[in-house]
């Protein structure tokens, strides 16, 4: 269990504790992708899960969010068992943004974001003015309020991804899980989206767990970094302690230098490769001790 | 939930884009339903007035509420009203069934005609008539069994750790061809006169629906409409795909199974009374979605569109071709397809502009 120091200025989230996987096994058609995995994702913090393709990081996220059934083990959120909780109740505590999202034809931004209110509405429930207020705040928080009236299909990739994030925000959950939220975005929109998630975490104390491909952005935005390889966690902890040349070699089989990020000071992975063109510079700092 | 986003200086309702969008959607829905209702009433007036024994609209309406001479009463209450009611009820059932199939399977081609469920109903009815020598309601029961059997077969072959819509549609298309072949073989090998009466089950007609059948159709539709109202809240999240729907708290497998069972029930019910009316379940929801255009399943508008479409088709079928009273099912496609094409063409222009 990872304790969050109370000196941190971020509000501790009242309703949810850490999301914990206990001996979790997940597979597809008899083939186990993840075997007996234990992992704690600290409450009120940003966790990034990284690892090579097919290492099981997306599968893990899907298992945690109950998008895919567990073959063994269980997942708890605070003192509650996620595995047996009614789905709708879970959807009020854990929001999830899957890897691919396709909006139905004709749906407008505000309507799509409004779908995030589903778990809060009764069986014959209608949208109330409270729901409208939540949707409006989610639109504002993600900077898409002026697009409220536009069909989602007409938006650019970056705008569309922010709209989907807004839908998850409208769910008003203490935990948000995102599966490669930056995949189809250019670098500017990647940074913009990660800033948005960092804001969300800072302002609301939301626990953010995201699967990311981009190691340097993961190291910069995560409080807690989980490195996976072949269905196992090979390293976890603060990025500065976890991400070094050795871990990158172990997990990705990649020869790399790890230097401090000139902007944030967090570890920055610079791959070596076989064809380094141009003049070789010595890194201006070396992490190797 | 206790979590709240940071409060912002609240916008006044007048400048609130979220609420105003929702109100605009509600107005549009009311407008579309109102327009369809006016159209249906006008068509109903036409249906009661037209015919071999031509009545004035005034006399026809009076007869419909029980005022007039015996001849008028017989023509309107015994001949024209049941046909009118059958057209409206069957159209409503097909429209609703198609909307449920298409939204749940997330495929605009996933209608019971294409999936072979309607053809299965025809096979069931023809087996009951030609094979078992049954008549009346027993034939309708046969249609119901036929639709159910095809639905179960599709299910059995399409289910792999959950319901995948593409596989469901492809398996359904396969069974549609199989059922059509069985039907063609049975009609080809049957006695000429039997085959002629069985032909109704391959085309569909609202012309000769008796009182008891009408009662069954009305009652069944009422019951299933209540079920649909209860499960309709699943449809909007399901339209986002399984992962999003699960993330929002929808039990997706149960939701799809429940929705499809209800839709199969609607198809079986309507087909067992009027036969398979081609194209209605496919085209009515497509028209309805274009009219509403909010990314939702447009269930209520599909009901209204289906009812109006079948009524219009039946008027054309009965009166447009002099001397030949064509079965309704031959005309439904002729009436529905051009309208859908026109809607698609104009919609395309609007989004490009």
Automatic annotation (TrEMBL), chain A:
Sequence ranges of Basic residues compositional bias: 274-283
UniProt-listed SMART domains: AAA
Q: Which PROSITE patterns match?
A: ABC_TRANSPORTER_1, ABC_TRANSPORTER_2
Would the keyword Membrane turn up in this protein's UniProt record?
yes
Q: How does it sit in the membrane?
A: Peripheral membrane protein
One GO BP annotation is: iron ion transport
Q: Where in the cell is it found?
A: Cell membrane
Task: Read off the InterPro entries from this record.
Answer: AAA+_ATPase (IPR003593), ABC_transporter-like_ATP-bd (IPR003439), ABC_transporter-like_CS (IPR017871), P-loop_NTPase (IPR027417), Siderophore_ABC-ATPase (IPR051535)
Matching entries from Pfam families are given as: ABC_tran
Cellular component GO terms, alphabetical: plasma membrane
User: Under what name is this protein listed?
Assistant: ABC transporter ATP-binding protein
Q: What is the lineage of its organism?
A: Bacteria, Bacillati, Actinomycetota, Actinomycetes, Micrococcales
From TrEMBL, chain B:
| Membrane topology per record | Multi-pass membrane protein
Q: Which GO terms describe its cellular component?
A: plasma membrane
Q: Which GO terms describe its biological process?
A: siderophore-iron import into cell
Lineage from the top down? Bacteria, Bacillati, Actinomycetota, Actinomycetes, Micrococcales
Query: Where does it live in the cell?
Result: Cell membrane
Q: What is this protein called?
A: Iron ABC transporter permease
Keyword Signal in the entry? The reply is no
Give me the ranges of the annotated region Disordered. 1-21
Where does this protein come from, organism-wise? Isoptericola sediminis
